[in-house]
Design brief:
By secondary structure, the chain is mainly beta. The protein is built from one helix and 15 strands, in the order αβββββββββββββββ. β9 and β10 form a beta hairpin. The radius of gyration is 20 Å and the shape is globular.
């Protein structure tokens, strides 16, 4: 009887351990790794999900065809076909210790940002970073850095990369900074 109880306790512990490792949502080439799935619902071709991570195991979104990777504490996302009928992230709201990496062909081929909240909108082709925002950009000629900003909107897929920054305020004065450094050729 004692061995049976030990076996049951070990079995429950193993099952609980497997659940705590999180899961994976695969939607075409889009993958979302998470610790806990709070909500998932299909509405025709659209899938809505809400996930959470924990310290050491954040939510991680990878969308290679949209050129981005994102990690965060919590995620609300809408997945569905894009204009070319490929599975894609349509919208995403990432909250808590967000890191956003955008890596695509020119212009501004690389963007790395951190914020407390990031909104991604595929239809508008924008990424909005909010709350203690830092953003680094790079193209073949320059390094560009934005620091001490409250909000930054990046317009993706445009001929020229456009970035709008709203600076943090200190004593009524803006303190946001943008620096541009040429690369050494």
């Amino acid at each position: 009887m004692r061995r049976l109880c030990v076996a049951i306790v070990l079995g429950v512990g193993l099952l609980h351990g497997q659940q705590s490792q999180g899961g994976l949502i695969q939607f075409g080439k889009v993958s979302i790794r998470y610790y806990k799935l709070d909500y998932s619902q299909f509405k025709g071709e659209i899938r809505e999900v809400e996930t959470r991570g924990i310290r050491g195991f954040p939510v991680r979104v990878e969308s290679p065809e949209q050129y981005f990777t994102l990690t965060c504490a919590r995620l609300k996302a809408t997945l569905g076909p894009d204009t070319q009928r490929r599975p894609a992230v349509r919208t995403a709201e990432a909250i808590g210790q967000v890191e956003f990496v955008y890596n695509r062909p020119q212009p501004l081929s690389k963007l790395n940002g951190t914020a407390q909240r990031v909104l991604y909108d595929d239809q508008k082709r924008t990424v909005t970073l909010e709350g203690d925002v830092s953003l680094d950009g790079e193209d073949e000629f320059y390094f560009i850095r934005w620091r001490d900003n409250e909000r930054i909107v990046v317009y993706l897929e445009e001929e020229l990369q456009r970035v709008e920054a709203t600076a943090k305020m200190r004593d009524g004065a803006p303190i946001g900074v943008m620096t541009i450094e040429p690369k050494k050729q």
